[in-house]
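step: validate -> pass
step: tokenize input -> pass
step: predict -> running
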Amino acid sequence: MDWLRTLFFPGSASTSNGSSTMLTFEGLDPGWALIIWIVFALLLWWLHSRLIANTPRFKRGVIVGLRLLFAAALLFAATRPVLITTLVEKVRQKLIVLVDASASMDLADLRSTPEDRARALIASGRLSPDDGLSQTVPADDAGRPTRRDVLKSIAANSKLALWKQLNERAELVFYSFGHDATENPPPADNTDGVATARAFFDNLPANDQTTALGESLRQVLDRHRGEPLAGVFVMTDGANNRGLAPVEAAVSARSDGVPLFLYGVGVTEPRDVALASADAPRIAFLKEKVTVHVRLTANGYEGQPVVISLRDSASSQGPALAETTATLPVRGDVGAELSFIPEKHGELSLEVTAQPLEGEASTDNNVATIRIRVIDDRVRVFMIEQEPRWDWRYLLDFLQDDRRLSLQCVLLDGDPSLLKLPDTPFIAALPEDRTALYDSDIILLGDVDPVRLGRDRMQLIREWVDQAGGGLVFLAGPNHNPRSYLGTPLEPLLPVVPLSGPAEQLTARHAEPVKLALTPAGARSPLLRLSDNPTANSSLWTKFAGVRWTAKVARARPGAEVLLADPSPARSTPAGPGPVLARQRFGRGEVMYFGFNETYRWRSELGGKYYAQIWSQIFQALSLERLSGASKQVQLRVDRPEYQLGERVVISGRLYQADFKPLVADVVPARASFSPADASAAIEQEVMLRPVPDEAGGYRAEFSPTIPGHYRFFTLLDPSAVVEFDVVAPRLEQANAAMNLPLLEATAAAADGRLLREENLFELPQLLEEKSGRVTSLKRFELTYSPILLSLLILFACAEWLVRRLNRLK
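step: predict -> pass
step: emit ->
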């Protein structure tokens, strides 16, 4: 019925796809109108044939026809015809344009493949936007434009005319984003969308050090929730290093019915070398070798050597502390080690640098900074044994020979003459006071009858581990350890659940030596690492001699980590092989369990090198909690030595009185002194330590540094006990120079959207057209009041009168 509406109301808007028109009548019934018209026609014909029979038939027929047409138009008007048109019309909606303004957008990608060079030329308008990547790339190709320059080129590209076409289909609203989304203020004048787009990209920054793609997408969706949106168009390199995952935000967009279009800028495989990680022990000993483990990621530099150097950050231009050369793979990771001997104690900041290579996408990711604490104090080890045994003798020799350790030993059933030896580590009896015990960093508890320890002393050891962060080692034996500790205060500290039963069943020896098996957790653990190569490490452990006895236990305690196991059926548990070497956290401290008494066999065949290495790694791990504290009395620490600007620093730990009883105070005054990177004068601010509920002597302080620099935190209780850490500006944008294509693809798929590159960016206006919003409305057109119908009535009446007058008829 659209033709009827067009005929009677020619000025009405044309309908779009999906529109329809229906004719209804609200007056005289059309059937009766037709009958009346037929009767009138017959009557009129009969009268004219009688009354004006002398008039020529042709003229008589013209007069009758005009009168019948007039009657038909009049009766048609009497039916009150109404056209009801359902209109489906397009609505001009908002298109949110979300553009990456992080520092990675200033990376100048080296476009080494023809496809990537063609993309840059399509963006700049030197190649056709709709002929794909098979076009011939000119010899003087696109060079190395930054990602931000590519966006500017697209805005100025008259061949693509992207913003002109988008502006014709939607109202453009621009946002830039880094750590969050910021709306570009609309122009004060009536500047069109194309000019606004060009001005936006001309002034687009690229200085934000974080990219919160998912969070920014969520923010713009929340700000425009309830508004009719044509979609969200995101222009980014796919980096996301903060906040909500982009896929989650995309799912939200899909549930809101908002189309999501993504344009990925950059290259997926740039030539680049990056320092992925640099790891060193948190605690190192003065004049003892420290090894820094470095991992590089590389792409595009197959077989090329790269020099990796280690320097003191305080003198980064000075000579290297260590240097090595690594050969880069085709693509992937390569490891290296840098070793040096610290010559001074205190906090040491180290800078690891991979020498930049020609053509790298970014050299900002070639540097990493790590901090270690060099101590000149010895680790205080307190060894408790009931009677001499072979394993005790070997371990005693190691403890006495290691200059990093200070040993005290109690041999409950030992020869009194041991107390008279020169520089003897032996003491006559177990200490009775808390101070002597709390002065230790590690306690080695051998095959000792718990009755000899006493319940009060065992409770004190438990508190020392739980509250003071001490390291406790259970050295199993056939007489008491661990089975006799069932029901004692030390039982919960054991990483295994002891068995009770006849002693002969629990102390039976193996008929043949059994090689202990390295568990998956043990293979990963730095405590048992004999080589950085996992295969070589596992091979070395298979070469150790077997043992004749291991303690039979029920199982490993939940939460314990089993490092070595006895694979023999006689020691199996319902959970698998019997645990022999296990560790677990208990409060602030750590506990290890040795379920065999033949660690000296680590010396056989392979020599004493690995025996010393294993025990050294174990002692360092056990003493870490105590040594990382500011002092024995002030056991405060930060969870890592370096924070990024804006992160919350948490300083926590325990404070003790002079007698090592937990400090009780409502608040403990402290100071945070920091030296800004751009100034020499230190600045102090007051920070209060407040007690932690249900934690005796536990205190905690939190604050958010606002200035990068080196920070020193100390309490007025003991100003000499200092906690040091660094606050640096974030460098997340330099970590990975590649466009994150998998993330962009996953985000587009989650939103049921579309990911575009330069070769198909021209499709965006049509995609927007297909997904643009439409509204449905009803319109009434009453034909009775149509000027065309009125004109026809007048025309027919005038024509009939004119014919009569010309023929001189009444």
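step: describe -> Residues 205 and 723 are 38 Å apart (CA to CA).
step: cleanup -> pass
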